[in-house]
Amino acid sequence: MEIEIVTLSRQGGRSYNEDVHGHWHDERYVACLVADGAGGHGGGDVAAATARSSMLGGFSTAPGLDEFTLRTLVEQANRDVVARQAEGGKLAGMRSTVVFAAIDLESQALAWVHSGDSRAYLFRGGAIVARTTDHSLVQQMVAGGMLDEEGARLHPQRNMLLSALGSIEEAPDIAVSDRMRLVAGDVLLLCSDGVWEPLGDECLVDTLHAARTPSQWTELLDTQIKAHAKPGHDNYTALTLWVMPDENDDDATRLMPAVEEVTMPAPIDEPAAAPDKP
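The structure corresponding to this sequence follows.
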């Protein structure tokens, strides 16, 4: 399975960038992350960078796609951010969202974990087939039937989070996906709210249809965010991972101009034991 990763991170209309991204891999596993810090210069960026080093470092030591492994990574990252808060000053009130995806190249499987409103999307056949659910006030309103997704994206309280790393008194909300099958032609997007908020899911799909390479897509995302975002808009960060189709594979999933029906990726069972590495 051949993959290609392209990243984009801009400060937007702010005076500094509190978003971070990162990825790690060995012969079998790939891990990717986007974190969106909050708390001001010298705070939010430190919280996000702390989450990145904690989670990628922890995963590289003991990689896996099971729920316990992914949940434990976020729990440890939260403790690490809280430990840095104890240094006081600008760091005392810092927080960070996080979205983290892990891929097992051997079993061709994907799983993700997140806390906050940074998102993971899985595209198949040019359509969204899986997406994280934000830990936010407006997402609760959507769940309660008071808002639709478009209304939530434009709501004045859209930035009010219900969970983020840096929580001392209460543990952060952590959502872990099922293992999903990954196939040739799939596209994974991890992004901060500075990407999905000004664009919406429809624009993400449209720009993906218009691109034929990861670099083209990130360039289109950058252009569209600059065109649609309001003055003083948030930092924005995207990490795109494409599972490159085999040129000789007629059955590989490819982007199409239109998709009438897309089946959600079925969860796959965790293998009883991972095979030994050669």
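Residues 3-243 form a domain with the Phosphatase 2c; domain 1 fold (CATH 3.60.40.10).
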